[in-house]
Amino acid sequence: MSAMNVPLLDLKLQYAQLKEEIEPVMRKVAEDQWFIMGPEVKALEEEIAQYTGAKFAVGCASGSDALLLALMALNIDGIRSGSRPKVVCPSYTFFATGGSAWRLGIDPVFADIDPVTYNMDIEHTKQLLDQHPDIKAIMPVHLFGQSFDMDEWTKLAEERNLPLIEDAAQSLGTKDDQGITVGSRGTIGCFSFFPSKNLGAFGDAGAVTTNDPELAEKLSILRVHGGKPKYYHRMVGVNSRLDALQAAILRIKLTHLESWHDQRIQNAANYDQMFQSQGALTNETPIAQEADLQIRTPKGVTGKARHIYNQYVIRVPGEIRDDLRKHLSENNIGNEVYYPVPLHMQECFAELGGKEGDLPHSELAAKETIALPIYPGLTQEQQQYVADTVVSFVRAHTPTSV
Ligand SMILES: Cc1ncc(COP(=O)(O)O)c(C=O)c1O
Question: I need a surface site. Which of 159, 178, 181, 237 has the fewest CB within 10 A?
Fold first, then answer.
């Protein structure tokens, strides 16, 4: 196999393509010396609202803060109330989903995932809502860039009279089964512009979306310490202001986002074909079931839905996953495990009583999944090298492979 270098993400490549467009706006911010909030942030907010189809977008410092602000705006707070309210969220997600709740004195109740889509399992969530009548919000995650079923989840939230907080940190531009962009149907949508996201800043940044004018107003006050007018506080917020520099960069990048989504979708289709032509099945068949090749590609979406592939995640047998990672790294192929420890098994949440065996689908996904390079600009040749390296390793290390 030819020696090749395939990073997990190549932001230098993206920057080289955008330099001519981005450097003038960075210079303008430097010349204006208006660094915090201001017209660039306002313009970005309008453009994000328009892009998602939500009535309002409010910029903030990160996706983690977006979640925090969402909970604060909904008055779900265990610090001041003296009680420990609860929210339900998935266990198999980035830490911030549960961590944001914990920081407000809220106990996250962790639901298992649907093993096929990796998104939060609605039947398990219903059971948890029955068991914990003190749950104050439902917080599913559009994981890896794929929407959860918005029809089902909005219906559930309405039936239970609970707010639906969409953790759409990985999913700006993702469309649900109705072809509707995520972050526009829930009570509040939370987005991250962390550099590795499809729309990534030059640092941390985030946004919240909502259709509710009162919530939008409250969110915009909470991110500036809760003061409006400045120095007059009816509430206590946080410092989660968005930098003008980030907003200016994001506005340029937003004009390229659709083409980046298209390239990621094309790359995913290429991998699907490369793996499936060798005998891989989709994630609808568990690894436990024997197959010619013990690799499972993402299920993908059909109809009006759009998966934006912030991550392209395959499954392999848990016993060989970490060796495969090592092998890929030795062959200069970037890879990552999202996420090796489900939240119910994180040490910091031990007092919630979660233990191994509680959420089998989350635990299995944590052992079997591995993310491969999928960024725009990845060549077919690079993809073939990644696929061939993965396939040959899996074939050589799984006795059930033929
Ligand atoms: C599902 C999910 N939620 C929340 C966040 C937090 O976003 P940020 O890193 O911008 O704070 C992330 C970011 O990685 C995420 O993937």
Answer: 159
- Quote the CA–CA distance of 54 and 215 in Å, as a whole number: 12
For the chain, give the percent of residues with pLDDT over 70: 99
Answering whether pTM is above 0.85, one says yes
Nearest CA to ligand 1 atom 12: 169
As a whole number of angstroms, the distance between CA 183 and CA 261 comes to 17
CA 14, CA 22: separation in Å to the nearest integer?
11
* Å from CA of 92 to ligand 1 middle: 13
| Ligand 1 in reach of 372 Cβ (< 6 A) | no
Both tokens of residue 138? 């439902």
- The DSSP secondary-structure symbol of 298 reads -
Cα(231) to centroid of ligand 1, in Å? Answer: 30
The chain-wide mean pLDDT, for the chain, equals 96
- Answer yes or no: are the C-beta atoms of 150 and 172 closer than 8 Å: no
- What pLDDT score does 400 carry? 55
pLDDT of residue 29: 96
Residue 11: helix, strand or coil by DSSP?
helix
Taking alpha carbons only, the member of 298, 265, 277, 296 closest to residue 378 is 265
CA distance 16 to 92: 35
How high is the pLDDT of residue 81?
A: 82
Distances (CA, A) of 320 to 15, 299, 345, 395: 36, 22, 22, 11
18 class by beta-carbon count within 10 Å (0-12 exposed, 13-18 middle, 19+ buried): middle
User: In angstroms, rounded to a whole number, what is the distance separating the alpha carbons of residues 320 and 351?
Assistant: 32
How far from each other are the two terminal CA atoms of the chain, in whole angstroms?
21
Please give the Cα distance from 287 to 341 (Å, whole number). 19
Work out the average pLDDT over 276-290: 95
* Distance from the alpha carbon of residue 212 to the mean position of ligand 1, in angstroms: 23
Mean pLDDT value of segment 3-30: 96
- Average pLDDT of 289-318? 96
Task: Kindly list the structural domains of the chain, giving each domain's residue range(s) and its CATH number in brackets, ordered by start.
Answer: 11-254 (3.40.640.10), 257-397 (3.90.1150.10)
Residue 147 exposure: Cα atoms within 13 Å on the Cβ side: 29
Per-residue pLDDT of 75-104, as tens digits, reads 999 998 889 999 999 999 999 999 999 999
Indicate if ligand 1 lies below 6 Å from the C-beta of 167.
yes
